[in-house]
Design brief:
By secondary structure, the protein is an all-alpha fold. The chain has helices spanning about 1-10, 25-160, 160-184. The longest helix is centred in the middle third of the chain and has 134 residues, at about 25-160.
C-alpha cells in the first residue's frame, strides 16, 4: 500500500510530461483512471442516470398502480363469484330438498296406487271366485235337477199305465179349465 500513496505524494515518481509511454504499474494507474472515469460519469451521467431512475421509478409506480387495480378487480370478481356460489348452493339445496320431497311424494303416490291396484285385484279375484262358485253350484243344480227329472219320468213311465196316464191328463186339463173360468 505504501507504493500507492507514494505515487500520489512524490511527483518525482511520475514520468515527465515530455515522454510518452505506458505506465505498467497497475497500482499507480488504476485508482487514477477509476477516479477520472467515475468523476466524468458523475458529472455527465448524473442527468442521464437521474432520468433513467425517474423513468424506472414511474414504470414501477405504474406497475404497482396497475397491479393494485387488477387486484381490486380480482377481489370484486372473487366476491361476485362467492355471492353467485352462495346463491347457487342455496338453489341447489332448495332443489335437493324439493327433489327429496318430490321423490317422497312420488314414492307415497306409487305405494298408494299399488295398494289400490292390489285391492282391486283382490276384489276381482274374490268376484271371480264367487262367480265360479255360483256357476259350479248352478251346474250341479242343473245336473241334479236333470237326474231327478229323468228319475221321476222314469218312475212315472214305469208306474203309470196308459189308462192311468190318460186319467191324470184329463184331471189336469179339468183343473186348468176350472182355473181359467175363475180368472175370466
Amino acid at each position: 500500500m505504501k507504493n500507492v500513496t507514494d505515487s500520489f505524494v512524490y511527483p518525482g515518481h511520475w514520468p515527465s510530461a515530455g515522454s510518452f509511454g505506458f505506465n505498467t504499474d497497475i497500482l499507480a494507474t488504476n485508482p487514477i483512471n477509476l477516479s477520472v472515469v467515475i468523476g466524468v460519469l458523475i458529472f455527465f451521467g448524473k442527468g442521464v442516470l437521474s432520468d433513467l431512475l425517474d423513468n424506472r421509478k414511474l414504470r414501477i409506480v405504474n406497475t404497482i398502480r396497475n397491479s393494485e387495480e387488477l387486484r381490486e378487480r380480482a377481489v370484486e370478481q372473487l366476491e361476485k363469484a362467492r355471492a353467485r356460489l352462495r346463491k347457487v348452493e342455496m338453489e341447489a339445496d332448495q332443489f335437493r330438498a324439493n327433489g327429496y320431497s318430490e321423490i317422497e311424494r312420488d314414492k307415497l303416490n306409487f305405494i298408494n296406487s299399488t295398494y289400490k291396484t292390489l285391492e282391486q285385484l283382490e276384489n276381482y279375484k274374490n268376484e271371480t271366485i264367487h262367480f265360479e262358485q255360483q256357476r259350479a253350484i248352478n251346474q250341479v243344480r242343473q245336473r241334479v235337477f236333470q237326474q231327478a227329472l229323468q228319475g221321476a219320468l222314469g218312475t212315472l213311465n214305469s208306474c203309470l199305465s196308459n189308462e192311468l196316464h190318460l186319467r191324470t191328463i184329463n184331471a189336469n186339463i179339468g183343473m186348468f179349465g176350472a182355473m181359467k173360468e175363475i180368472t175370466d
